[in-house]
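Q: what sequence does this backbone want?
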């Protein structure tokens, strides 16, 4: 069964069909200047689910996700701390990877760093200058000339006729910033001439010392690892313009190949308790913030996947509590089915791969929902609708395991919290007498008291330094 997604470029739902025997996808990765927050991870987790779903559909996937380790923010923050750019970004890159592992995200096939691909970026900028799509400025910067690309704006749906294209922005200055607002449509920096605030973070180029602009990084790295054109490009909706629009322009103008990417996959923003995330509101939560409040990484992942990727997700603590309850119900049902099949949770974990057949099982409707524009909320609803029918049938158990793989939910990490019932004082007293008899090696009395407690409906569970009581 083909997987389909809403293609931002075509503005319709398209089946994802690779041009080669491998589906090639590129996702904009983190800018490593601090810990990633849940808004970042919503996008990364959705991309991870798409990759996993493609693998479950039978496709071989080559997944490239970059590390942005040089831009305005990384340079500014590293210099504040008097750290080298390499040491500073490595710290936050390691933290990002640790968080990804906790959230059960697959590692990309290739994860290139921008600073390790300066030569590829310079080569692309040189081509754009040579073919008239870019021009050097007096300060050593190089700009892409938007007016030379007739299709500029096709991804974001900009009105070409009414779009002001100029070599300077509304302030009358060249647009040197890595990021800018939608209203500021101007020629953008491919290479940025060295400035005092860059410190020692510069490289040599034909136009003088400087560093790459943010947009050129992804074009150069995707070209190296996926080719002049490839299947799918993903990112948050905030990257659609200007970042992805600029990628298309510089890539197609440097290679002469079109389209640069056939499918564009954008996920919507995340709100927190109905408000936009911001430091000033104190709602810019990291994974560590939420685990410190008692939520597991799988509960957080479940909550991040609970809304459709194209709809704004309102992330709430009630939603986290609901995710916790839903996962507990799921785990309990799976454990019950495994017991009937004579299997363990470890057996289920071994089955959690992309290889099991889902069609023809009680979970086929959930699989169809995943394949239909990655409709995870509907897929989860179908899973819970079918799970009541789950018995010891190994085909159904295997199908559910593959759905867990597609969603990236590791149910083996979730322990079911059984409610503890307090034993009556009389039972506690008998159990205490039995403990004392055991300590005195009066085995006959200890056995008699154990049986008495059992007859009253309780089991004594011995521990090294005492005992617990559990209702039978």
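A:
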């Amino acid at each position: 069964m083909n997987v389909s997604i809403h293609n931002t470029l075509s503005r319709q739902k398209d089946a994802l069909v690779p041009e080669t025997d491998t589906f090639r996808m590129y996702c904009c990765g983190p800018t490593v200047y601090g810990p990633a927050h849940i808004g970042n991870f919503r996008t990364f987790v959705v991309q991870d689910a798409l990759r996993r779903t493609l693998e479950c559909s039978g496709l071989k996937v080559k997944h490239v996700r970059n590390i942005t380790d040089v831009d305005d923010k990384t340079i500014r923050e590293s210099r504040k701390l008097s750290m080298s750019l390499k040491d500073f970004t490595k710290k936050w890159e390691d933290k990002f990877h640790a968080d990804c592992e906790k959230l059960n995200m697959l590692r990309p096939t290739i994860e290139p760093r921008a600073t390790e691909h300066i030569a590829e970026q310079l080569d692309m900028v040189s081509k754009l200058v040579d073919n008239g799509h870019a021009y050097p400025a007096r300060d050593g910067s190089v700009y892409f000339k938007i007016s030379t690309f007739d299709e500029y704006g096709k991804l974001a749906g900009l009105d070409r006729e009414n779009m002001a294209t100029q070599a300077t922005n509304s302030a009358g200055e060249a647009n040197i910033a890595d990021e800018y607002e939608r209203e500021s449509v101007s020629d953008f920096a491919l290479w940025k001439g060295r400035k005092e605030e860059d410190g020692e973070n510069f490289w040599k180029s034909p136009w003088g010392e400087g560093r790459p602009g943010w947009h050129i990084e992804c074009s150069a790295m995707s070209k190296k690892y996926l080719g002049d054109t490839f299947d799918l490009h993903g990112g948050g909706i905030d990257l659609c313009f200007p970042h992805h629009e600029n990628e298309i322009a510089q890539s197609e103008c440097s290679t002469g190949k079109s389209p640069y990417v056939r499918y564009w996959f954008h996920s919507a923003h995340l709100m927190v308790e109905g408000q936009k995330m911001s430091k000033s509101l104190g709602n810019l939560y990291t994974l560590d913030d939420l685990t410190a409040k008692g939520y597991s990484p799988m509960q957080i992942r479940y909550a991040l996947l609970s809304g459709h990727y194209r709809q704004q997700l309102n992330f709430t603590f009630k939603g986290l509590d609901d995710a916790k309850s839903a996962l507990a119900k799921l785990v309990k049902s799976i454990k019950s089915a495994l017991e009937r099949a004579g299997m363990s949770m470890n057996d289920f974990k071994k089955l959690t791969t992309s290889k099991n057949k889902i069609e023809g099982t009680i979970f086929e409707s959930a699989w169809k929902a995943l394949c239909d524009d990655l409709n995870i909320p509907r897929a989860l609803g179908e899973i819970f609708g079918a799970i009541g029918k789950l018995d010891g049938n190994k085909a159904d158990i295997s199908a559910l395991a593959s759905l867990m793989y597609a969603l990236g939910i590791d149910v083996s990490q979730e322990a079911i919290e059984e409610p503890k019932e307090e034993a009556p004082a009389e039972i506690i007293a008998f159990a205490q007498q039995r403990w004392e008899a055991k300590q005195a090696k009066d085995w006959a009395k200890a056995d008699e008291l154990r049986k008495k407690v059992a007859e009253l409906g309780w089991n004594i569970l011995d521990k090294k330094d005492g005992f617990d009581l559990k209702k039978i």
